[in-house]
Amino acid sequence: MPTASYERFLYQAEVQLQQKELESSRAILMEGAMLAKELGSRLYFNKLAGSYHQLQEQWGKEPSVAALEEVFQPW
């Protein structure tokens, strides 16, 4: 997968986080993390994990955010 596709997930997640869009942030981060794992890209997985931690800081008590914890376990 081209680097640009990974970066699209990173940038989209960042924009959604800044706009405080919980569900779209969560969906983008989940899709990006699963793709990074599938393709074995630890670099982009770790970058997405940074955005996930921002999401946790903003909405850590939300059940949909708690459900993402499993997706962001290192492999």
Describe the structure.
This protein is an all-alpha fold and 75 residues long. The protein has one domain. It is globular and about 30 Å long. It has four helices and no strands.
Based on the model shown, name its key terms.
single chain, 75 residues, mainly alpha, 4 helices, 77% helix, 0% strand, globular
Query: How many domain units?
Result: 1
Helix content: over 70%
Low-confidence stretches: none
Find the count of extended strands (DSSP E, 2+ residues). 0
Query: What gross morphology would you assign?
Result: globular
Approximate strand percentage: under 5%
Output the radius of gyration.
11 Å
Structural class: mainly alpha
Total number of helices = 4
| Multimer state | single chain
Task: Please write the string of helix (H) and strand (E) elements.
Answer: HHHH
Largest sheet report: none
Query: In whole angstroms, how far apart are the ends?
Result: 19 Å
How would you briefly describe this protein structure?
By secondary structure, the chain is mostly helical. The protein contains 4 helices and no strands.
